[in-house]
Specification:
The chain has one domain. The longest helix is centred in the middle third of the chain and has 105 residues. The protein is mainly α. Helices cover 92% and strands 0% of the residues. It contains three helices and no strands. Keywords: Coiled coil, Membrane, Transmembrane, Transmembrane helix.
């Protein structure tokens, strides 16, 4: 019986020690796994935060850029319309001036044409007016001579 007791006493302490060692190994492995999980959680959280911040900044920047673009387009549109209005009025004024000059030139050409022809008839307005003025001038000269005498 002594042999059996010794056999029973000896195996029990190594099993308890093995269990304690296994528990220590499990705890150390669990600590390492927990530590790695914590770091992975921190890394994933940081990446998610950075991604969210980038999206927020991108949206903010695009909104600001679109507002500035709309303002610049509005300014360009108003300046374009203003310059177009100025050019239109300038061209209308020039066209009116050219119209007057063309009318004057036509009158002058008509007068020159009428004076250059040998057949001076009374159909021409300028010629008839000149003839009327000459006749009135002659009448006035006659009446002046009568008054003087």
């Amino acid at each position: 019986m002594q042999v059996q007791l010794n056999n029973q006493n000896q195996p029990t302490p190594p099993l308890a020690e093995k269990r304690k060692e296994r528990a220590k190994k499990r705890r150390s492995k669990l600590l390492v796994v927990n530590f790695i999980m914590l770091w992975l959680l921190l890394i994933v959280g940081g990446l998610y935060g950075a991604h969210t911040y980038m999206l927020h900044m991108e949206q903010k920047l695009s909104t600001k850029l679109s507002i500035e673009t709309e303002q610049k387009l509005l300014e360009l549109s108003t300046s374009y319309n203003q310059k177009l209005t100025e050019l239109d009025s300038s061209y209308n004024d020039r066209i009116a001036e050219l119209g007057k000059q063309i009318d004057e030139l036509n009158q002058l050409l008509t007068f020159v044409k009428d004076n250059s022809t040998n057949n001076n008839d009374n159909s021409n307005q300028l010629y008839s007016q000149i003839n009327e003025i000459k006749s009135q001038l002659q009448k006035l000269q006659k009446s002046m001579e009568l008054l003087k005498s």
